User: What shape does this take?
Amino acid sequence: MKPTMIRKMILSAACLSVVLSASLVSTPSVQAATASVQASVSSTQKANTIVSYAQSLKGKVKYKFGVNNPSKLIFDCSSFTKFVYAKQGVSLKWGSVAQSKQGKYVSKSKLKKGDLLFFSVSTPGKINHVGIYMGNGKFIHNTTGSVKGIAISDLNSSNYKKRYITARRVL
Assistant: This one.
């Protein structure tokens, strides 16, 4: 064999040895990192789909307090979020107070698309309204203030800023 060929074989074997030993040493951490990235991508995809689906219902959904009628697209705020999230396999209870106890608490400064936002729109300090965070300070919700039900509002508007109570991450 020629010296250049021997050098190439030695170099290839050394590279293969490094790759194999690195993968054997880091397999658990690589697997954990891969699972974490996949979960993050999955929840981001779900959040995008949830927000897009909620937006697609604008002009089709009607608001009626205390109603959960998916066949006629008549909902209150929490039956609307329940309906939208169910399309992505996320089970929510009916009622804004019940939904405010699901998932994990998230601070207002750490909101992500798809988080549930809770407000007090009638009795001060009492949760009685829910919406879906869209990102960039906007949220979508089913409300009495819109002709067809669905409205996109600014979380930082004076109206909602003072009524905001908490948020939950359910994805």
The chain has a mean pLDDT of 84.
